[in-house]
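Field: COMPLEX_INPUT
Field: COMPONENT_COUNT = two
Field: RESIDUE_TOTAL = 846
Field: MODE = joint
Values follow.
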Amino acid sequence: MTDLIAESLETSEDTQKGKFLTFLLGNEAYAIEIKFVIEMIGMQPITKVPELPEYVRGIINLRGKIVPVMDVRLRFKKEFKEYNDRTCIIVVDVDDILLGLIVDNISEVISIPDEEIVPPPEINKCAENKYIKGIGKVGSNVKLILDCKKLMNEKDIEAVTQERQL
Amino acid sequence: MSDIFGNDPMLDMFIFETAQLIEQLEQSIIEIERVNCYTEDSINEIFRIMHTIKSSSAMMHYENISLIAHTIEDLFYFLREENPENIDCLKLTDIVLEGADFIKHETDKIVEGRKSDGDGSELINSIRDYLSELKLNNPQADDEEGKRPSKNEDAGNILEDCSNQISSMDFPNQNYKAVVYFEEGCQMENVRAFLVINNLKEIAENISYVPEDIIDNDDSIEIIKNNGFLISFKSDRSYKEIHEFLSHNVVFLKELELYEIKLGGYRQLVADNQDSKEPQFFSTRQSIISVNVHKLDKLMDLVGELVISEAMVLKNPDLNNLVLNNFQKSARQLQKITGELQDAVMSIRMVPLSATFQRMNRIVRDMSKKLEKEVRLELIGEETEVDKNIIDHISDPLMHLIRNSIDHGIEKSEERKAKNKPEFGTITLEAKNTGGDVLIIVKDDGRGLNKESILSKARKNGLVGKTERELTDKEIYSLILMAGFSTKEEVTEYSGRGVGMDVVNKNIDAIGGTVSIDSIEGEGTEITLKIPLTLAIIDSMTIKTGESLFSVPITSIRESFKARNEDIIIDSEGNEMIMIRGQCYAAVRLYELYKINTEVKNITDGIMLMVENNGDALCIFADEIIGEQEVVIKALPGYIRNLKKVRGLSGCTLLGDGSISLILDVGDLTASLKEGRMKI
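Field: COMPLEX_OUTPUT
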């Protein structure tokens, strides 16, 4: 019985393995594993929720489900860019918690085999580095592979200190 | 590990059933004690309950539970079969309740995912002692008991049932029951048993036998091997004739026990029962299916969404300025149906309070015995229904209230006599519906609350804020709800730690209810819990600040009004206050509190909403009021909850046009502001 389940899980994971959804933030190309992605939608009216860090823009109504949205630009301390018709929300599901990621625009779904992925350098000052799981080489380009779990779970230092001050 | 347990439907069922049976058991025991006699019916019921628990726990491999149940079952088997005289009701009740407690405790352990490792041997021994004592006192019964193998209860149960049936049908004939043992190793016991029945049909009628499914069920072989084959039947032949008939016709017969059932004894017994006050057994059994609460929650969510999307369709901006007669007609029909659907779903979640109330009987019984006070519990309106979530929250508070009433309120009998009160104290537990709320009233006719001693105690603990003369009676009484308050000088098993009333207050508060206390010294105390009917859907007022929408529960709104500039007072630190009818309230500008951009900053342009929670009131300044509507409460998404606790918000909701409104938690808001966790 358990074998069966494990098997079916494996096969569904197999078809998704090595597939990444790529998107742009400014000039940088990022990628997230396709297994986390629930859907992609255009920009939605956002309801602000007070007292949250700036990068959490608020919540949206996704067909009756309430989903928080995070501006990935702001999360990576890049400057805010006005939303336009290219702006997209990628809804991801990590361990049954839903989150919408606001990105500049979505490019495509690509396959990156494991051997083309290299770990990020150990020494790096860049703030977003800790959310990068690896760097994938696709032809002559590189894609920064995001670690969704960390993006979601790691409490932003700023938010924590803010909380203490209050 | 515990997860795996939690998901096992068999175990779930076992726990659920056992809990229900134990509850049923307690209920009948309490009932029995009230009339102080064990009737045939009640003995049968307890026997049945114990039998079920025994078998199901044995099936789940909980040997300790099974053993206890088995021992009690033995005891009741004896009671039922032999009808011994001079039973010590109190002792018996104690034993059964102790056993029930043990089983309850063990199942609790299982629920928590721990191992059920309680040792019931001491209890078992005491039950056995009691049983042998009973047997000694009823020697003639003992003889017969000795003859019978002790494993026969299963069969005895059914045998007894059918003999009961026969007795009630008032047959003139003598009736028999027989136990047939086949020789060991004769094999195919079930087929042989079937032959016996066939043969017996020549001379007897109304034959019933155990195990029943002898041919279809192979397990029956084992049962017949171990327990013998039990038959009961009606025949007009004499005892001797039947004995001979059976001895001759049964092949491989090893042993035959044949009993005559005399009807006279039973009739006598029935008559006795009618003399003594017949206890009223309320039939609480209904045709019920048990459904996982999560499924109901899901259904509730879906209906909530349906209501929202209905509004989205019917109030669609595309429809504006169109004349659509037929559409409007159909729309009204749709609205009616969704409304009914919503009501139906809500009613599914409604559970009567009776189970919770009945549980209090047990507490009253135990405590009044221990404290040597005579207390009666009266239940009124136990059929009142409230949401399942709420039931879970009020069981503890009720227990504390009842305990308090017995321990502090009700006096000992001598003291009561001296005061010209009836010897036994009465606690009334009443539930009633009033619109959107349920009132649960706990009333006792004890000594009441002493204002002076409450005040002096409060002074000692520094709990009084205002000057004492300003306190109303109700405010004084409500001091006892505070943590660390107990007028009792010493801590006893039941009360005195000053935690109980605090628990009451916190629990009731958590479900949006309120507690109020009234008392007349020397005559009694009345504590009223006001509880909302349901948690999932609330009536709310939606207000707007800038682009943001907020919903405030109607229950916490006192009034709304336009403020004038001259009403506003600003203190040295820049805090704003507002004077209304001589009272001063803090004024909170929502846009400042939550840093929202808005055009409306002048106090005269917007609207003031006075909200209140537990006597703490404050005024909220918002741009405008959108309107009143019923909203379905949804929790904030998991990501935000993990990130941080947003103060003053209890959740969010979807409005008719699909926009999201945040639900203000007035209790949290006032508390946060008071404790300075939040700055205006």
